[in-house]
Every structure is written in C-alpha cells, then in structure tokens.
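Suppose you are handed a protein chain with no further information: no name, no annotation, nothing but its sequence. What can you learn? This example shows the usual starting point.
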Amino acid sequence: MRKISSIIVTIICTILFLVYSLIDYINNYLVFLPNMPEAYFSEKKWKKKLRSIDYP
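A reasonable first move is to predict its three-dimensional structure. Written in structure tokens, the prediction is:
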C-alpha cells in the first residue's frame, strides 16, 4: 500500500509542479495571475495526507 501511495504522491506533485510552472510562465506576460504556494507540491505534505486516508 505504501508503494501505491508513493506513486500517487509523485503523480500529484508532478501535476501541481507543472501547473505552477505554467502559471509562472504566463505571469511573465500577465502579472496579475496569483501563483500557488510551493508547499502545494511538497511530497511530505501529500504523503502525510494520504497516510491519514490509508490508515484511519
């Protein structure tokens, strides 16, 4: 189960990092778009969330 949650965490962090990079790229031209905090694609945070879901 830990391996599956690790894979899910990696996918979530990758997607959020790509969204962050896209918003950052767009912000070079449009200054008013707010970007998400870098903590959103932190692996430790998502592992902790998934661990609490997996093991009640």
